Amino acid sequence: MPLALLLWDGAHNDLTANPIQEITQRTGKTALVLLALTLAVTPVNRVLGVRQVVPLRRPLGLYAFFYLCLHLLTFTVLDYWLDLELIAQAIAEKPYVLVGVAAFTVLVPLAITSTKNWMRRLGRRWRVLHRLVYVAAALGVTHYYLVVKADVREPLLYGAIIAGLLVLRFPPLRRVVARIRVRRLTRPARLPQPSRGS
Amino acid sequence: MSTIHWSEITPEHIYRNRRALMRGAGGLGALATGACGGSTAIPGPAATPEAAPVRAGSDTDELGDRLTTYESVTNYNNYYEFSSDKEAPARLAKGFKTEPWTVTVGGLVRNPRTYAIEDLVGKFSPEERIYRLRCVEGWSMAIPWLGFPLHKLLKEVEPTAQAKYLRFESVFRPDEMPGQKGGFFNWPYIEGLRLDEAMHDLAILVTGLYRKILPAQNGAPLRLAVPWKYGFKSTKGIVKIDLVDKQPTTFWMAAAPNEYGFYANVNPEVPHPRWSQATERRIGELRRRKTLPFNGYGQEVAHLYAGMDLRKNF
What we know:
Number of helices of chain B: 10
Radius of gyration of chain A: 21 Å
Structural class of chain A: mainly alpha
Number of domains of chain A: 1
Oligomer: heterodimer
Radius of gyration of chain B: 18 Å
Shape of chain A: globular
Largest sheet of chain A: none
Largest interface: A-B, 22 and 27 residues
Largest sheet of chain B: 7 strands, mixed
Structural class of chain B: alpha+beta
Order of helices and strands of chain B: HHHHHEEHEEHEEHEEEEHEEH
CATH topology of chain B: Sulfite Oxidase, Chain A, domain 2
Distance between the termini of chain A: 56 Å
Number of strands of chain A: 0
CATH architecture of chain B: Alpha-Beta Complex
């Protein structure tokens, strides 16, 4: 969808006066939002009990990676015309580029091992490996934080959302949340009781 | 000291054709410059900003680069008072009132004055100057401004011997400028120049562009254009100019002191943590181009900084 919108606006000359920057920003933000949604799947399942979202996790993660690839290609090809000297200079000179490249590097093995086949082959280690997604998300938010001009409110919001999703996974908190849910789920069964006396 | 002459800044074919252009502009015919011996009136408020821009066939700056289109110049603006989104100011500035408007010039001067904007424009006849504008974010434009040298105004108010710097204060109207709401930034926008920089003939106060009255999103009714410095130095919506003895702390210096210095001369040698300063993208072009020291005005202004470490004084 975001890609369709991007192509539509591109075809209609509607990508601002600085289209390359606009494409960079849009693909980057889409990747970050999709990554946050990927991370939200497990908590939504566990905390809210919406099991239907679980099958969405892998496609969401892969779409996030896809937009990250577009983002990287925009930067290296469209923006810098594969000028390796300038790109190397950018990585060395600008922390945000380095952090962004690191986020991409972390996500590459996760995208590769996202198939059922790899899940089977890695067994328990697959779960451990895929916890790296939180590292990638943290790097992504840091990248965004470093790239905005002074007004860091939006990157901080993304950071807070991702941190919140991470916190929900801590076993003690998970247990608390699960208990609340169990209580909620059992309560309706008792509800009709008070009406008996009337 | 070398200064650029009006005839050098404006491509020859443009000022040669000025009269023809003015005739073509119909109702806008009254605006022009003294350089070609034409009329020196400025478009009054009656001039319609909607009229099509008057342009010669192949307008370029003195380096031979084409002017950025009127549409891009007036729809891609960094004007944080309205929004940090560059396309939003054109929308949000609609209906922004630029009249009545006064500009107070004071501080360390012999003749402090308060000008109504129409008096200011009437007094200092505008001339066209095609300048490159290099934004610190790594994009640039070439814009035909209408304006007058700041030194003409300074001559009238007469800075005292103690005056060393100029402090520019911009309009503060949070009700009309949504970006000023909320306490994130420290409004109003403050900018500054050293007195000798302000006296340089290239530093102009701008009242129009593309031979039309300045649109609100570009900083109407009065903004600065200091072409050898990053765009944020060319402050918009000026209401107050004070001559002071100490270097003023500017808006961006206060917001991010490690990123924005007082001088902010365009300098490909001083990297910025986010944007490439070695290269830039001219709006409307696909490929990056090399950024020139002092934005290509080194011959004219480098002497102002003789003996200064411009890496430290960024």
